[in-house]
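Lab notebook, bench 4. The sequencing result for the construct came back, and we need a structural model before the next group meeting so we can plan mutations. Quick request posted to the team channel:

Model the 3D structure of this chain.
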Amino acid sequence: MDTIFALASARGKAGVAVIRVSGPRAADAAETLCGTLPPPRRTGLRRLRDAGGDLLDEALVVRFEAGASFTGEDVVELHCHGSPATVSAVLRSLGGIAGLRLAEPGEFTRRALANGVLDLAEIEGLGDLLEAETEAQRRQALRVFSGALGEKVDAWRDRLIRAAALLEATIDFADEDVPVDVTPEVSVLLEEVAAGLKAEIAGVAAAERIREGFEVAIVGPPNAGKSTLLNHLAGRDAAITSEHAGTTRDVIEVRMDLHGLPVTILDTAGLRESRDAIESIGIARAVERARAADLRVFLLSGGDMTQDLVLEADDIVVQGKADLGRGTGLTVSGRTGAGVAELVARITSVLESRAARAETATRERHRQAMLSALEGIGRAQNQVSEGMETVDLAAEHLRRAVRALDALVGRIDVEHVLDEIFARFCLGK
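Done. Here's the predicted structure in token form:
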């Protein structure tokens, strides 16, 4: 492979910038800049010089040998001063060394996959970790990046291979008197894997919401105080407020962090019959987004429920404009903040209960692979229940289930998803 290099830390002014070099010529390239290198996995302060001998910077140099680095290759990291001019000078000098080239986006991580350092699920977890904005996202991404999903897949895979081996043994010895009936053990193995897959599949939706964010729509009649409430939650004037009904014509979104959960609050147009063409479009959009939202807060004025939307189990009904003394039960005022803390607590409680259902799998790709494996297991169970005459078909269904799990962690048939995944990575990863 080529030896590649790139800035691994964020661009812009900083105290320290990390430049990573990976590949067979990494050590030689670093020695060209700084002379002798420190021992592997130890730091050393070195002066970096360009091809003409001019001083570029003083940097901490760290060397990792193949098999003990992020990419699995020889890697050298140069921890330089973080000014843009210094970084540019060092990158320019590296680019002038024969056999080196600038890394493409995600190429360091792609090499980690190719060299068996990370599996595909771990790489997806790393991508999520780099994008994490809330504590829940960080915890979930770190769990996947640390290999939790890969460990489950390996355990399922081992059980399926064991079951297939038992079935194939009966085929190999079909003409002999084999005293052991493998059906009970095979059935137990398949039931265990099927139960684990079903639990993971059920948790994908919640895990996706943690990764992408929950949506909470504030809905209700015009002039109920929806925009004022949104502004109070956002801590800024995100929406225009007015005493005139129908001010909000489109869906306004505010991204928030509620107790570590990523949440987008939606302020929607007031729901009513309208002859105004533009307002009618806004109302239609409000209904559409509210139906698709994870949770709805019905903010009422005078106690009337809107007929455009059906109240669902977790939806929250609250009376607005508490500062005017209206309504009973849970009341809020976006103007004074009365009742807002209680409303936020209710919203958080509902979303936390949903987030608790998340397992380790976080993507639709994971769900589809597990569904494919589960389908293969179900067919194998049917064949086993019919007797040993169709045991060869059962074993083939289990091999297909194993291949589905292999695709989940990137062992086979994943080239079509790699470009999409790595396109989100920066040059330094």
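Residues 123-209+363-410 form a domain with the Four Helix Bundle (Hemerythrin (Met), subunit A) fold (CATH 1.20.120.430).
Will bring this to the meeting.
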